[in-house]
């Protein structure tokens, strides 16, 4: 312990000395009790810069001191510089380099929180376009030039060549004025080169169309020599064409070759056409060897009929028979681009092509081709193919709508073996069924069945003939037998469903169509039949569901949309009903029942002005029906437009002077409006009502005399029949008169029940016709259902 020395306390080195020392200025614990500070806060004295030194340890001269008021009071430096967050010039200086959107931590006095800047008021109005500025004048002039080019092209399309040339010249003058104006305004760098090219190119074309070849060539030279026009070298083809018309063949060849040099190999079709033109020019010059060189190149690269024919002519001109044969072989190998079955079917819109096809359809070459083909097949081991070829020929006649030739071809097989006979008889039955010769259709269906009882198409056709005779039980038996022989026969399954529907066996019909829907998922006819069956089974929700699926397949079918509207209307959902009725009207605005429903809907919802357009359309469709015109007048009257209603009633009275309802409303309106014409209309109304009473009395007397005649059973049956006819007519008239409102009742639209009763099914009111089956080449191949589409309209 003698060697241990203790350090005195005053000499102890404390590492943390000084960290608890602080400037008393920063002591904020007793600020609430500091009277001087509180007084400074409450008065303007606190905003004076204190005469203190800078805070030690900082680079700035001062910083805000927090208070209990939730804001920071800036404390200035000796120089009076405002600190961060202080108010300067009425705006809050941001605390950081990034300011928050729409607000800041301190708000200037008197400012309002306005993040969207709405306090600035509405935006100033757009400046009106000043058309006197040079740039605006240039734009207007450019538009005029474009319009003149378009007018020139349209005039040429109409055949007015002189007018097209005048417009092209005027466009050229306007374009030159446009260039001068740009040079004057110092905007020559912005000259529209595309517009200049269009003007010159159109002008050259119009010169050529008017046989002004010199001017056309000069204009083309202007374009070709201008290096600023890209791909202008192609126009040398047009110049070569002009030289060819002038019979300057040497220059034509020169310019064709110049154009060929400037066209890359990527544009092979253009190069082939130019080569073809070069070959034609050589033919006109008599240089057949050079022409052969061009045509042979084309036939090796891209063979076509015209070039192959020209090549044969060149070989003929030089007397080279062997090369002629080879060229002809190449020519017949050139694809025509159409199917063999369609090459003799004439198009409907080209009379010249129709004449050519009629000429070659049965020429000697075609006859020889057909006879040799069939004879060769008949003499070979594939003799059965000859029969198939003949049946295929009959089918080709059908596609050409030559039913007579098709029938004659098929009748040739009546004495053939059973398989071929059955196929031909099936097709004949189908043809006669289409022509509504049901006796012949039944005869050939029996013949097909006797030749091959397991032919499902023959059984379907036999069932169809029984269906037309309304022997539904027997028809169902044939359809069932066809399904037994071929379970995938969709025609038999569809027709069986129709048959069950006619017999009232709705559940069985539903089962057939559900099976068919599993096979034909997107068949619109099947979906409609399912919807119709569910409606007949009083399940409207399922009917709506199937119709909704149907709209996904045929979204623009107006009748399907109308049917959906009808079902929703029956369910009481007027908004959905209106949506589908309106869509139906949009696709087919001539359906009277849809128009009537929409008009009645707007009347019920008190929008009579909107109902007017629908009843006016109904008036256009049925101008002789007075009720639509009365509804238009009624809508005007309901909407308060009495003057327009009066004019409409007067117009109706001129067209239908004996209409009682029109006269009644004329009397009422003239009375309410205090017009002098009321007496004239009242007199006319009395006369018409008196004539109506006389007519009704005659109807009642005719009915009574008819009934008396039947009771007496007298021999005067002819007279009784005549009275009965009069009575029936009178009944129809009385029913019509009962529908008219009384004199004190307003003319209303048809009730909803009347609208429902007048609904027509989507696919037409025709009788349901069964699907027709037919046969073509073999037992397995049916004459597919291209024959089914037009004849299988559901009821």
TrEMBL record:
Bias kind Basic and acidic residues: ranges = 693-713
The record's GO CC annotations read: centriole; centrosome; ciliary basal body; ciliary base; ciliary tip; cytosol; intraciliary transport particle B; motile cilium
Query: Which Pfam family would be a valid example here?
Result: TPR_8
Against SMART domains, the record matches this protein to:
TPR
- Which residue ranges are recorded for the region named Disordered? 111-134, 693-795
What are the start and end residues of each TPR repeat?
Answer: 233-266, 272-305, 456-489, 490-523, 524-557, 558-591, 592-625
Q: What is this protein called?
A: Intraflagellar transport protein 88 homolog
| Keywords carried by this UniProt record | Cell projection, Cilium, Cilium biogenesis/degradation, Cytoplasm, Cytoskeleton, Flagellum, Repeat, TPR repeat
Cross-referenced PANTHER family: INTRAFLAGELLAR TRANSPORT PROTEIN 88 HOMOLOG
Report the record's Gene Ontology biological process terms.
Answer: inner ear receptor cell stereocilium organization; intraciliary transport; kidney development; non-motile cilium assembly; regulation of cilium assembly
- Coarse class of the protein's main subcellular location: other
Free-text function comment from the UniProt entry: Positively regulates primary cilium biogenesis. Also involved in autophagy since it is required for trafficking of ATG16L and the expansion of the autophagic compartment.
User: How is this protein organized at the quaternary level?
Assistant: Component of the IFT complex B, at least composed of IFT20, IFT22, IFT25, IFT27, IFT46, IFT52, TRAF3IP1/IFT54, IFT57, IFT74, IFT80, IFT81, and IFT88. Interacts with IFT20, IFT22, IFT25, IFT27, IFT52, TRAF3IP1, IFT74, IFT80 and IFT81. Interacts with IFT172. Interacts with IFT57. Interacts with IFT46. Interacts with IFT70B. Interacts with C2CD3. Interacts with ENTR1 (via N-terminus). Interacts with LRRC56. Interacts with DZIP1. Interacts with CCDC38. Interacts with CCDC146. Interacts with CFAP53.
Question: The organism sits in which domain of life?
Answer: Eukaryota
Q: Which organism is it from?
A: Cyprinus carpio (Common carp)
> Is Cytoplasm among the key words of this record?
yes
Q: Where is the composition biased (Acidic residues)?
A: 780-795
Where in or outside the cell it occurs: the entry states: Cell projection, Cilium, Flagellum; Cytoplasm, Cytoskeleton, Cilium basal body; Cytoplasm, Cytoskeleton, Microtubule organizing center, Centrosome, Centriole
Q: Provide any one GO MF term from the record.
A: kinesin binding
């Amino acid at each position: 312990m003698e060697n241990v020395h203790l350090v005195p306390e005053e000499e102890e080195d404390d590492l943390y000395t000084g960290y608890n020392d602080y400037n008393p200025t920063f002591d904020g614990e007793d600020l609430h009790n500091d009277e001087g500070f509180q007084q400074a806060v409450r008065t303007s004295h606190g905003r004076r810069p204190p005469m203190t030194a800078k805070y030690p340890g900082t680079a700035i001269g001062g910083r805000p001191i927090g208070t209990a008021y939730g804001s920071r009071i800036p404390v200035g430096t000796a120089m009076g510089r405002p600190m961060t967050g202080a108010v300067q010039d009425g705006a809050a200086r941001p605390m950081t380099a990034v300011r928050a959107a729409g607000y800041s931590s301190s708000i200037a006095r008197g400012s309002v929180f306005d993040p969207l800047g709405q306090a600035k008021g509405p935006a100033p109005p757009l400046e009106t376009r000043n058309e006197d500025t040079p740039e605006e004048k240039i734009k207007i002039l450019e538009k005029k030039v474009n319009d003149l080019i378009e007018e020139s092209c349209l005039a040429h399309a109409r055949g007015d060549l002189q007018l097209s040339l005048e417009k092209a010249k005027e466009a050229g003058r306007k374009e030159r004025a446009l260039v001068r104006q740009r040079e004057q305004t110092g905007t020559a760098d912005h000259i529209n080169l595309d517009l200049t090219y269009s003007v010159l190119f159109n002008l050259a074309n119009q010169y050529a169309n008017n046989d002004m070849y010199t001017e056309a060539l000069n204009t083309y030279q202007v374009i070709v020599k201008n290096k600023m026009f890209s791909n202008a070298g192609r126009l040398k083809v047009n110049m070569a064409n002009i030289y060819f018309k002038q019979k300057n063949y040497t220059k034509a060849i020169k310019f064709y070759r110049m154009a060929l040099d400037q066209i890359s190999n990527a544009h092979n079709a253009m190069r082939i056409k130019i080569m073809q033109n070069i070959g034609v020019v050589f033919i006109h010059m008599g240089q057949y060897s050079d022409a052969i060189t061009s045509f042979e190149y084309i036939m090796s690269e891209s063979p076509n009929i015209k070039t192959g024919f020209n090549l044969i002519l060149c070989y003929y001109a030089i007397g080279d028979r062997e090369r002629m044969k080879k060229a002809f072989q190449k020519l017949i190998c050139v694809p025509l681009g159409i199917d063999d079955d369609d090459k003799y079917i004439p198009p409907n819109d080209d009379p010249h092509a129709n004449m050519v096809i009629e000429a070659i359809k049965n020429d000697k070459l075609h006859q020889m081709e057909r006879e040799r083909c069939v004879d060769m097949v008949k003499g070979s081991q594939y003799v059965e193919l000859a029969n198939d070829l003949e049946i295929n020929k009959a089918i080709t006649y059908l596609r050409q709508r030559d039913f007579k030739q098709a029938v004659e071809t098929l009748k040739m097989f009546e004495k053939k073996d059973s398989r071929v006979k059955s196929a031909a008889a099936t097709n004949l039955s189908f043809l006669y069924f289409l022509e509504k010769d049901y006796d012949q259709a039944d005869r050939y269906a029996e013949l097909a069945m006797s030749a091959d009882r397991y032919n499902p198409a023959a059984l379907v056709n036999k069932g169809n003939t029984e269906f037309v005779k309304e022997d539904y039980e027997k028809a169902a038996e044939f359809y069932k037998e066809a399904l037994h022989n071929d379970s995938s026969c969709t025609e038999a399954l569809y027709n069986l469903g129709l048959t069950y529907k006619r017999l009232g066996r709705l559940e069985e019909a539903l089962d057939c169509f559900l099976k068919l829907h599993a096979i034909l998922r997107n068949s619109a006819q099947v979906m409609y039949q399912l919807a119709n069956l569910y409606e007949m089974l009083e399940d409207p929700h399922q009917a709506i569901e199937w119709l909704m699926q149907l709209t996904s397949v045929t979204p623009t079918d107006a009748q399907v949309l109308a049917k959906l509207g009808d079902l929703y209307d029956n369910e009481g959902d007027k908004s959905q009903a209106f949506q589908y009725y309106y869509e139906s009207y949009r696709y087919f605005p001539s359906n009277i029942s849809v128009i009537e429903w929409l008009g009645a809907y707007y009347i019920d919802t008190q929008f009579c002005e909107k109902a007017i357009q629908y009843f006016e359309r109904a008036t256009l469709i049925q101008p002789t029906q007075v009720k639509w015109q009365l509804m238009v007048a009624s809508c005007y009257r309901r909407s308060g437009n009495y003057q327009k209603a009066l004019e409409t009633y007067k117009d109706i009275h001129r067209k239908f002077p004996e209409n009682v309802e029109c006269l009644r409303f004329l009397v009422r309106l003239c009375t309410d409006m205090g017009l002098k014409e009321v007496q004239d209309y009242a007199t006319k109304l009395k006369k018409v009502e008196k004539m109506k009473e006389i007519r009704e009395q005659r109807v009642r007397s005719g009915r009574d005399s008819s009934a008396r005649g039947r009771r007496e059973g007298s021999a005067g049956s002819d007279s009784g029949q005549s009275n009965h006819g009069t009575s029936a007519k009178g009944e129809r008239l009385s029913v019509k008169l009962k529908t008219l409102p009384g004199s004190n009742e307003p003319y209303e639209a048809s009730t909803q029940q009347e609208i429902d009763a007048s609904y027509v099914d989507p696919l037409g009111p025709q009788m349901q016709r069964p699907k027709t089956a037919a046969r073509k080449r073999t037992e397995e191949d049916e004459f597919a259902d291209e024959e089914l589409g037009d004849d299988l309209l559901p009821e």
